[in-house]
Specification:
With 202 residues, the chain is of the alpha/beta class. It has two domains: 3-146, Rossmann fold, CATH 3.40.50; 148-202. Helix content is 36%, strand content 20%. Strands 1, 2, 3, 4, 5, 6 and 7 form a seven-stranded mixed sheet that branches. Helix 3 (92-105) crosses helix 4. The two termini are 21 Å apart.
Length: 202
Amino acid sequence: MSTDNLQDCCAPGATVRDEMIRLTPRVELRVITFTPPRPSAFPPVLFVAGWISLIRGWEKVLREMTGDFRVYYVETREKISSRINGKQEYGVEDIGGDLVPLVRELRLQEYILFGSSLGATAILDSYRELEPKPASLVLVAPNAVFRVPASWKAIVTLFYPPLYALIRPSVKWYLRNFRLDVRSDAAQYEKYCEALDAAEPR
């Protein structure tokens, strides 16, 4: 996403910096920093969105937050924007483990940790290792389990990542027919579809 598009995600007058931050020799994550238009007494927010979430899904929330808060929006390691060298794991512990060096790299002292879904779960998992500890946590619907049919586990294990494009329509069909009420919330289905289209198959 270009910086021009990112301006749509922040309050009028706020500025945007888009950068890659190296956490380990093998992991670099994209961090988008939104600075409010006026100096603020509020602590900065480290924003950790859910599994394969796209920033445009949080556009309205970010627009409200960035009027008063400096926000560090981190795209976690399973996002296609990350730079991963060699074989890495993508579990909750690994995603949460990235937050520890990230807090250090950003030199955060008093700060708020904000996360949703898998991002909130990763925050909970990493909390005991964080130094310094956040001033507060905002956790939106942390989840412990992502349920899929047992047959899918075999398919995911056997499929080579480039073949992701072949199974993606089935995932969308499953979400549409068994997990989401598309009639009452079509926007949520579209949001998931966009996220699946942008996901890193690994």
